[in-house]
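in:
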């Protein structure tokens, strides 16, 4: 047992240190295919190492990743599965050097004793740090039955994950939507559904959906006909940071669901909101028209400074895959 453990330890050390960039290598025209796809992305200056896997890696093939910024180089050898697991201390030193600049990434592989080098790609390192913690629901990748799920938080500067709440405390029910008040962690709301052990939905879709406003102080539900219509599916509401504008998705309602699900395409819309009177405006602006653009919108989000709007597009519905 001691021999096995020692062998594993020696392999890990060899994978993380003591490697050098090849002096000569045949250049390849193609970029490396890596998972996750971190090619040409912008990263915050305090993020944990962007560890990735070479997708076409073959067991026994030697591979290296070289990260460069100015005079700072970081060379890492792939493990037996083609994973590049960068040392956290070396990574932090590299980010300190690269803040406001970019890191060049070179991936090498040895084929029949000769080194080959994929086309380089880059990571732009932002000056501004990102929020340190990320909250999300974690569920096994299946849609027929569930057993264990929960809402967790991840420290993006490390790989540390902690549970906020898990459903083994709530009879293994489904816990789903969650949100924070103005993106601050002091107040959080989340939704739980029933105490059943499974569901028979293969994919989530709307047979009916409307948007209502709930006043938590007066404990009243406010309804506006603009957002509550039988002729449309309204969903995914999101307020602007100043609370004066509501973004949401809206699709023309269809009678047969799920038979006509593929014909459902959501527009991205916005409407003004009066904070004092708790009332919506009369005009709905269409920001992204699904029919003319050929795709459906979901999950609109506005940046904290109000300058940028981000959303997801799909071929149809509210969470389909192209």
């Amino acid at each position: 047992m001691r021999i096995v453990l020692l062998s594993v330890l020696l392999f890990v050390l060899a994978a993380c240190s003591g490697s050098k960039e090849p002096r000569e290598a045949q250049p390849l025209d193609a970029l490396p295919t890596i998972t996750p796809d971190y090619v040409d992305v912008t990263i915050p200056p305090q993020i944990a190492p962007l560890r990735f896997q070479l997708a076409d890696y073959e067991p026994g093939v030697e591979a290296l990743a070289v990260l460069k910024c100015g005079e700072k180089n970081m060379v890492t050898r792939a493990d037996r599965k083609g994973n590049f697991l960068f040392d956290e201390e070396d990574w932090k030193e590299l980010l300190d050097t690269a803040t406001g600049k970019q890191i060049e990434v070179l991936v090498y592989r040895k084929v029949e004793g000769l080194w080959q080098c994929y086309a380089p790609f880059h990571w732009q390192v932002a000056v501004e740090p990102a929020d340190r913690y990320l909250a999300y629901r974690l569920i096994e990748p299946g849609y027929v039955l569930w057993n264990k799920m929960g809402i967790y938080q991840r420290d993006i500067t490390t790989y540390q994950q902690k549970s906020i709440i898990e459903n083994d405390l709530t009879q293994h029910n489904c816990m789903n939507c969650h949100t924070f008040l103005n993106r601050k962690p002091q107040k959080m709301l989340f939704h739980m559904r029933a105490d059943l052990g499974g569901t028979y939905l293969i994919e989530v879709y709307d047979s009916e959906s409307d948007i209502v406003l709930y006043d938590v102080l007066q404990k009243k539900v406010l309804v506006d006909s603009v957002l509550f219509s039988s002729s449309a599916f309204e969903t995914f509401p999101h307020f602007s940071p100043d609370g004066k504008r509501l973004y949401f998705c809206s699709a023309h309602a269809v009678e047969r669901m799920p038979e006509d699900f593929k014909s459902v395409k959501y527009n991205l819309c916005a409407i003004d909101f009066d904070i004092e009177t708790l009332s919506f405006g009369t005009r709905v602006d269409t920001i992204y028209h699904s029919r003319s653009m050929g795709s459906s919108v979901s999950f609109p989000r506005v940046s904290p400074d109000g300058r940028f709007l981000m959303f997801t597009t799909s071929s149809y519905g509210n969470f389909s895959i192209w």
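note: The chain is about 10% helix and 40% strand.
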